Amino acid sequence: MATLICFSTPGGRLTYDDHDIVNIHDAAAFPGKALVANEGGDWSFLYIVDREPTDPEVRALLAPWEGDLIDPNEPELGREMLGKRRYTLQNLPQTPDGRYRKYHPLDEAPEDMKAVWSAVLVAMHDKAGA
User: Fold this and answer.
1) CA atoms of 24 and 9, how far apart (whole Å)
2) 78-123 residue pLDDT tens
3) pTM check: above 0.90
4) Which residues of 42-66 are buried (b: 16+ CB within 10 A; e: fewer)?
5) Could you give the number of structural domains in the chain?
6) Residues 6+ apart with CB under 8 A from 130
7) Domain extent at residue 54
């Protein structure tokens, strides 16, 4: 039971904000060559070792950052989009060798690339301020 979080590296080429949680994968599954190659340093990685990627709390990390209703008189129009993602992992401790930026399979990953859910909550930032 583990989840791989893929988040945007500051200075990378992704159209997400710095540290945005972009995708979530089953830790046992290969996330894809484009992510693993990571030639532009676009991706950073962290494992949640005590949660499945299907866990509703984990899935909620992919929520968009929304503002007010577009039209209060017509709520079906939805909310104004302020950003692609609401949550970031900008409060992670820095590793001296930038370990988060290189993909490792779970069984080969350095220990500081693994975290329990409670540590992820501490490292997480909610742009909506909730």
Assistant:
1) 15
2) 888 899 999 999 877 666 566 688 899 999 998 889 999 999 999 9
3) no
4) bbbbbbbbbbebebeebeebbeebe
5) 1
6) none
7) 3-68+76-126
